[in-house]
Design goal:
With about 80 residues, this protein is of the alpha+beta class. The chain contains three helices and three strands; from the N terminus they run βααββα. It has a domain of about 40 residues: YefM-like fold, CATH 3.40.1620.10. The chain has a three-stranded mixed beta sheet with strand order 1-2-3.
Length: about 80
């Protein structure tokens, strides 16, 4: 759901708007009736684990070899 508030409302009720955003709502702030900003929740970041994809990714032996001229030529059309 998306709520639109004017600048005065946003300044006056900022804490309440943040509480709504924390619950997953989106708040749009408008000036003179035109949207200028959007308050959105920050996605929870998953802690990355180095090496967690070990054995899941394969690369061919020629991965770093130069591309064939026919393919390189397609980049310069």
């Amino acid at each position: 759901m998306q709520e639109i508030v004017n600048m005065h409302q946003a300044k006056t009720h900022f804490s309440k708007l943040i509480a709504k955003v924390r619950l997953g709502e989106i708040v749009v702030i408008a000036m003179a009736g035109k949207p200028v900003a959007r308050l959105v929740p920050i996605a929870q970041q998953v802690q990355r684990q180095p090496g967690s994809a070990e054995g899941l990714v394969e690369m061919s032996d020629d991965f770093n070899d130069p591309l064939p001229e026919a393919i390189v030529g397609e980049f310069y059309r």
